Amino acid sequence: xxxxxxxxxxxxxxxxxxxxxxxxxxxxxxxxxxxxxxxxxxxxxxxxxxxxxxxxxxxxxxxxxxxxxxxxxxxxxxxxxxxxxxxxxxxxxxxxxxxxxxxxxxxxxxxxxxxxxxxxxxxxxxxxxxxxxxx
Length: 135
Ligand code: THU
Prior knowledge:
It is a single chain. By secondary structure, the protein is of the alpha+beta class. It has a single domain (about 5-135), classed as Cytidine Deaminase, domain 2 (3-Layer(aba) Sandwich), CATH 3.40.140. It has four helices and five strands. It has helices spanning about 5-15, 55-65, 90-100, 120-125, and strands at about 25-30, 35-40, 70-80, 105-110, 115-120. It has a five-stranded mixed sheet with strand order 2-1-3-4-5. The radius of gyration is 14 Å and the shape is globular. The protein binds tetrahydrodeoxyuridine (THU). Tetrahydrodeoxyuridine binds next to strand 1 and helix 2.
C-alpha cells in the first residue's frame, strides 16, 4: 500500500467538504481489497443531525459499489482553510467501519502526506458491538 498516495487522496477529497456550519473540513480515502479507492467528505445540513461524516460517505459509496473488504482509510481533517491535523474518526464512524473490519483495517490519521499517525481500527475500538452480540 502506498500510504502517502492514499493520504494525498484524502486531502483532495477534503477540498470538497460541505461544512458551512462547523467550518471543519474532512476528507477520507478508503482503500478496498480490489485496489480501488473510494473518496468521501463531510456533508453538513441545516438540520445538523442530518450531517454525514467523510468516513461514512466514503464507506457507503464503497459498499454501494460492491466493495466489502478494506485495507486502510486515510483521514484528513481540520479547520477549513487550514492544514489538516491528526484527528480520530468519531465513534459513529468507527462503529460503521467496524462492520467491515476483520481486525486488520489500518487508519492513517494525517496532518500531511509525510506526517501521520498509523493505528488500527481495532486499537481505537477494541470492544466493538458486532453481529456476534445479536446471536
Ligand atoms: N466529522 C467527520 O466528517 N468525521 C469525523 O470523524 C468527525 C467529524 C465532521 C462532521 C461535521 O461536519 C464536522 O466534522 C464537525 O463535527
